[in-house]
Amino acid sequence: MTLAGNALVAQSGGPTAVINNSICGVIQEWQKNGNGYKIYGGISGIKGILAGDMIDLGLQDPSIINGLRYTPGAGLWSCRYKVSENDQEKLLDICKKLNIRYFFYNGGNDSMDTAHKTWLAASYAGYEMQVIGIPKTVDNDLPFTDHCPGYGSAAKYIATTVLETGYDLQSVSTKNKVTILEAMGRNAGWLTAAGALAKRTAEEAPHLIYLPEVAFDIDAFLQDVQKVYDCLGYVYVVASEGLVDKNGEYIAAGSSKDAFGHAQLSGVGEKLKQIIEEKLQIKARCNILGTAQRSAMHFASLRDAQEAYTSGMQAVKYALEGKSGIMVSLERAEGKIYSCQTGEVPLEKVANVEKKIPLSWINEEHNYVTDEFIQYAQPLIEGEVAIPMKNGLPNYITIDRDLGKVTLNPVE
Amino acid sequence: MTLAGNALVAQSGGPTAVINNSICGVIQEWQKNGNGYKIYGGISGIKGILAGDMIDLGLQDPSIINGLRYTPGAGLWSCRYKVSENDQEKLLDICKKLNIRYFFYNGGNDSMDTAHKTWLAASYAGYEMQVIGIPKTVDNDLPFTDHCPGYGSAAKYIATTVLETGYDLQSVSTKNKVTILEAMGRNAGWLTAAGALAKRTAEEAPHLIYLPEVAFDIDAFLQDVQKVYDCLGYVYVVASEGLVDKNGEYIAAGSSKDAFGHAQLSGVGEKLKQIIEEKLQIKARCNILGTAQRSAMHFASLRDAQEAYTSGMQAVKYALEGKSGIMVSLERAEGKIYSCQTGEVPLEKVANVEKKIPLSWINEEHNYVTDEFIQYAQPLIEGEVAIPMKNGLPNYITIDRDLGKVTLNPVE
C-alpha cells in the first residue's frame, strides 16, 4: 500500500443493469485490503461530492453491500455533470479534508474525462491521490477495452426481446406486419447490433438492422423492407436511435441537448413506422424499450455481472499497487474459447473517445451485421444472475443514503 | 366419452407469454384420454382452418409439444378474423370431412364470439360437436372469470419493468425527470394498473397511474405531475394506450381500425411527454414496451403458466364429459390465501363482453389504484418459469407446420 488514506467511490452517467457490481467489487476489495481505512461513497457522482454529499460505506449492512450485485440503477446515484476548473480545486479541497487518497470513478466516456481531469488536477497540485476509472456503459463505446461492463446484459435483454417479439410477429396473421425495435446508442450501434444474436434461421427476427456507423438511406430502407415483406410476409427491423443521413443529420433529431452538448434523441422508430405505412402501405408497430435496456437486471448476463464486479475489485488492486491515471480494461484472449482478463489503459487515451462498430462488421448493403459481430458479442450474454424474489418481483436493495453522512465543516 | 371423433384446437388474437401452455394442456390431455382419436391443430386460427390449413399434432415430437410450456407467441399461429355466415357453413363442412367432434378455441373476447358462433352453427345444423373456449388475453378483460391466463405474466413483466426503470429514474440526477410507461389495454386498464405492483415505498415508482376506465383530464394530469415533481424531484407515470377524455375521444387516436372495428392506438406516451415538456418545462422520457408485454416468457409468472396449462387440460375434460358451448373460467376462492379452480361459463355470456377495472378500485383523484387491486393482482405474478437456455438466450421451440398436413380433397 503506497498511500495512507481513505477511498472514495462514485458513479456517473446512465446506469446499467450491472453497474452496482463494480461498486460492490470496489467496496468489498477495499474492506478486505484497505488497511482499515474508510471507503466513502459519493452520492450522485461528482456533482454530489462537490456538494459534500458523501457517506461512510462502512456503516451499511454487509447484506446491503452484497445486494448491489443484483440491483440495477446507480446504487450511489449518478449524475451528468461537466466539471469546471473551479470545481477541480474544490474537489481537491474536499479530498484533502477527508484524507481521500484513492478515487474510483465508475462511468462511460464523459466520466472517464472527469476522472482524467481529476487525476491531472491532483498531479498539478502535488496532492498524492490514485485515480482509477472503472468502465461502465450499455453503449459499449469505450476504446482500448474489448468491451464494457453493462453491455452484455443490455445485449442479452435486447436479443431476448427481439426473439420474443419476433415470435409474436411471426405468429399472428394480422395487418401489423412490420415490427420496429428502437435501440439505444447515440453514435455507436453496439446495442442495435445485439438484436442479431436472436436470429437462428432466415425466417426469424431480426431481418434488417440499421446502425449509426453508416449513412441511413430512406429509399434503400424502403426497398429492404419491401423485399423481406414480399419474401416472408413480415419484417422485423432493429434501428438505432442515432441513425444519420449521408449529411450526418439525425433522422430523428430532438430539440434538446444534454450537459455535454449531445443531442437527446427520440423518435427514430416512430418515424420509420410512419414512412413504411405511408410509402409501402404496410402496417407497422414500434417498440421502444427506452431505459428498460439499461436496467433489466432480471435477465442480466451472469458473465457481464461477474466482469463488472471483477473490474471494480481490480481497480482497488491497481490503486493499492500504486497505479493511477488509468482505467481498468477488459482484455479478451485470442481463440475460439472465450477468456477475458482485466488490464489497464491510461485515462487520457480513453477520455471522450468513442469506439464504434468496425465497418468490416457491417454488411455491404448496410442493413445487417456480419458473423464477426456475432462471434464477438455472443460470449458476452452467457449465463443468468440469481435474483432474490419477493412477492413475485425482484427484491432489489437500496443503500441508506442518510447513514454515515460526511461532515466537511465540523463545529470548531 | 360421448362422441366418437377427432379434436381440433386453434389459437386466435394477440398472443400471450403463456398462450401455448393452454394448447399444450389440450394436446397432452387429449393424447392421454382421447381414446386414440386424432387431434388436429388449426394453423392461424379460424382463418387457416377455413383455408384447410391444419396439421395432425400427433406427428410432432413429444419434446416439441412439451416445449410449448415455455415458448411465447402463438405456437399454432393466430389470426384476427371475423367469421361470416358463409364461413360457418364452410367450417362445419370441414369439420364433417375430418370427423371433428371436439373444437377447442383459445383466445380473447373476439375469439369467444367466434367459438360461440361455431357452437350455434353446429347446433342449428344438427352436427354434434363439443365447442369449448379457453380464455387467453394479457388484457384480462374477459368477464365471468376471476382473471385470464396471460395476464399474470404480462403484469409481472410490466411491474418488473416499472421497478427497474424506476430505480434508473430515481438514481440519475439529470434533467430527464419524468418517465412515462405506455401500457397495452384498449378499453380496460388491467395491464396499466399492474405497474402499481412495483411500488414498495412512497418514493418508489410508479407515482401516477392513468386508466381508460375514467376520463382523462389534461389539466388535472399536469397538476398531478407537478405536485409529485415538487415533492420528489422525479415522477414515474404509467398510462394506458387507451386513455379517453370526458367525451370518450381517445387521447391518442390512430387513424386505422382492426378487423373487428377497434381503433388501433399508439402515441399516448409520446403525447403526454410532449405536454409535460411544453407546459411544465420538465424533460420527460417515454418507454413503450409494445408487443414485449405479451411475449416476455423469459420472466413469465409460473402461476399464470400453470393456470394456462390447467385451463387447456380442463377444456378437454369438460368436452369429454359432454359439455359444450362453454368457456373454461378461473374461480378464485374467498379469503386471504390464494386458491383458484377452473369453472365454466356459457360462451354466449362471454362473447364480446369486456370486463373493466371496478371504479371502486380506482382512487378518488383518478390517478392511482386502491389496495383492492393490489390484493387482486399480486398473487397472479408469483413464481418463475424455468426456461431451457442456449447460447445465452431462451431456447424456444417451433412447431413444424408442414408435418402431417391435412388433405381435405384427396384424389378420388
Please, could you describe this protein's structure?
The structure is a homodimer. In chain A, about 35% of the residues lie in helices and about 15% in strands. With about 400 residues, chain A is α/β, with parallel strands linked by helices. In chain A, helix 1 (about 20-35) runs parallel beside helix 10 (about 300-320) and helix 4 (about 85-95) crosses helix 5. The longest helix of chain A is centred in the middle third of the chain and has 21 residues, at about 150-170. The interface between A and B is large, with 70 and 70 residues.
Short account of what is shown:
Two copies of one chain form a homodimer. Chain A is an alpha/beta fold and 412 residues long. Chain A has helices spanning 19-33, 45-50, 62-67, 85-97, 109-125, 151-171, 190-193, 218-232, 268-280, 302-320, 347-350, 371-377; strands at 6-11, 39-42, 54-56, 78-79, 100-107, 130-135, 172-173, 176-183, 208-210, 235-240, 283-288, 326-332, 340-346, 389-390, 393-394.
- Radius of gyration of chain A, taken over Cα atoms and rounded to an integer in Å: 22 Å
Regions with little confidence, pLDDT below 50 for 5+ residues of chain A:
none
N/C terminus separation of chain A: 32 Å
What would you call the shape of chain A?
A: elongated
State the helical fraction of chain A: 25-40%
Mean pLDDT of chain A: 94
The CATH architecture assignment of the largest domain in chain A turns out to be 3-Layer(aba) Sandwich
Q: What name does the CATH topology of the largest domain in chain A carry?
A: Rossmann fold
Strand content of chain A: 15-25%
Class by SSE composition of chain A: alpha/beta
**CATH class category label of the largest domain in chain A:** Alpha Beta
Number of helices of chain A: 12
Oligomer: homodimer
Tally of individual domains of chain A: 2
